[in-house]
Amino acid sequence: MATACVMGLGSNFQRVVAVVSPKVSGSRVESSCSASSSSSSSSSGGGVACGSVGISGFVKGGGGGSFAAVSTTSTLKVLEFELVRGVRSQRRRRRRRKFVCLASSSAAETASAAVVKSFASEPEQLKGAREEIKKLLQEKYCHPILIRLGWHDAGTYDKNVAEWPRRGGANGSLRFSIELDHAANAGLVGALKLLEPVKEKFPDISYADLFQLASATAIEDAGGPKIPMRYGRRDTAGPEDCVNEGNLPDAGPPSPADHLRKVFYRMGLSDQDIVALSGAHTLGRSRPERSGWGKAVTKYTKDGPGAPGGQSWTPEWLKFDNSYFREIKAKRDEDLLVLPTDAALFEDPGFKEFAEKYAEDEAAFFKDYAQSHAKLSELGSEFSPPEGIYIDAEAPAGAKPEKFVAAKYSSSSEDNTSQGLSESMKDKIRAEYLAVGGSPDKPLQSNYFLNIILVVAALAILSYFLGYLS
């Protein structure tokens, strides 16, 4: 995230005013400056304020001067920075210097994308991205690969490693080529390409959230259950934070049931989670050129939709239902895929209990799948804010209650039916509330802000007298 910077300049230096405009490129943030300078050798000190669009703050001039507010917005192409500098003399004069920085159109347009974010993702942008993903799903029939993307970003989690992001999990690390090149992730570069336009249109959401949002939306769009999703996941900073290869499950290990338990128990998941999550194979196909499993084409995949080919687990491989369990149990069609790890669900006693249940009761499968998917999507994540962000009307049952109601501080009517604060603004107010010591579970003392005012006033008076004595 871009920051405002201040540097002092001596009398023999030119005064330079620059605007830093961050350029977001993938996972990197680059900076560019457009600067203008004017010679000045008459003063003994000075200062330069270099601020990026979307940043508000305070800068202090050289010497013992007072503070001047700096505020920049994404729509301004002319940014002003004022420096108030006290000059110690018998007359105690103050000299005021004004610097005007003109940013080029291209720099201003680039900088307009930089916004100070209270959280890892902006709620309104999450909602917008979800609608964009729905359009993408209807155009490309890409449900399976988007589900796989979210799963594989989260599936690297190791509960035995405490440090984030070294513990793996849903942290957006799959966007880096070092992890994308893992054998288990073959073909997922296509999913990233599909989502890049969404990320460009909604830059203020994290990649970690985008991957999980796409996965959950694909399940729901295919007729599956509503997933009680929580957002606000932070992204890893760079490829050095990617975990080593080998954390994702194999399709045909020597002991399939033992292998599944080894992988999923490492993530803190249960036998029920393993079976429920396996049911998502009701969607999609296995392509031998990517995984080494399945037929090149079948009667169910020869005509698409989407690119033809591959072997599916179910006849209607773009419809989310419980047919995966019914087909795996029956094994009646050679054109339908049954991997060793699929067959283990009805062979292992611990798994079979749930597999039989889901084959008979689709409602039970939907209920358990929704909970297991939500659990998987949060593995290893670090949330900002810590309690996460819910973009639907209400947080799901069992979620932490939202006791701080920002709408109470708006100018709308008591029943909030008139125009009040937007959800995004409520979130920002809440973030500021938490930053000054508030808590969802414990309100601030009534005199908290009065104390702040008194402290600031005392410091101002003390500063005045110290300056007078000097």
Structural class: alpha+beta
Radius of gyration: 28 Å
| Continuous helix count | 15
Straight-line N-to-C gap: 39 Å
Number-wise, the strands total 10
Please state how the strands of the largest beta sheet are arranged side by side. 1-4
What would you note in describing this structure?
InterPro entries: Ccp1-like, Haem_peroxidase, Haem_peroxidase_sf, Peroxidase_I, Peroxidases_heam-ligand_BS. Its EC number is 1.11.1.11. This is L-ascorbate peroxidase. The chain crosses the membrane at residues 448-469. The protein has 470 residues and is α+β, with helices and mostly antiparallel strands. It is built from 15 helices and ten strands. It has helices spanning 105-111, 123-140, 143-154, 177-180, 189-201, 207-221, 256-266, 271-278, 288-291, 323-330, 340-347, 349-360, 362-377, 423-435, 448-469, and strands at 5-8, 15-25, 28-38, 47-50, 56-60, 67-71, 78-86, 94-102, 285-286, 311-312. The strands form five sheets. A two-stranded antiparallel sheet has the order 1-4. It has a two-stranded antiparallel ribbon with strand order 2-3. It has a two-stranded antiparallel sheet with strand order 5-6. The longest helix is centred in the C-terminal third of the chain and has 22 residues, at 448-469.
Summed up:
The protein has 470 residues and is α+β, with helices and mostly antiparallel strands.
Secondary-structure topology with pairs:
Blueprint: E1 5-8, E2 15-25, E3 28-38, E4 47-50, E5 56-60, E6 67-71, E7 78-86, E8 94-102, H1 105-111, H2 123-140, H3 143-154, H4 177-180, H5 189-201, H6 207-221, H7 256-266, H8 271-278, E9 285-286, H9 288-291, E10 311-312, H10 323-330, H11 340-347, H12 349-360, H13 362-377, H14 423-435, H15 448-469
Antiparallel strand pairs: 1-4, 2-3, 5-6, 7-8, 9-10
Helix pairs in contact: 2-5, 2-6, 3-6, 8-12, 8-13, 10-12, 11-12, 12-13
